[in-house]
Amino acid sequence: RSNAKNSPDETYPYATTCNFTLLLPRYSSKKILKEKLLYAIGQNEGFVLA
What is the extent of the structural domain holding 25? Predict the structure, then answer.
């Protein structure tokens, strides 16, 4: 998730499953968007109820 201390380029996209929403930070370039999105897609730890 985004942290107020970090620039958008240092954060990753995240999703909310209850609203089926993908939240994307305002990246400074399409290249960074692609890198962060592909990385996030590859990190599939599964779904856990907290």
Answer: 8-42
Concerning whether 36 is annotated as a catalytic residue, the answer is: no
How would DSSP label each residue in 1-50?
---TTS-GGGS--EEETTTTEEE----SSHHHHHHHHHHHHH--------
19 lies in a domain? yes
Of residues 1, 16, 18, 38, which has the active-site annotation? 18
1 is a domain residue: no
- pTM of model > 0.70: no
Query: In tens digits, what is the pLDDT along the chain, a chain of 50 residues?
Result: 545 467 999 999 988 888 889 899 999 999 999 999 999 888 876 665 55
Q: For the chain, what is the domain count?
A: 1
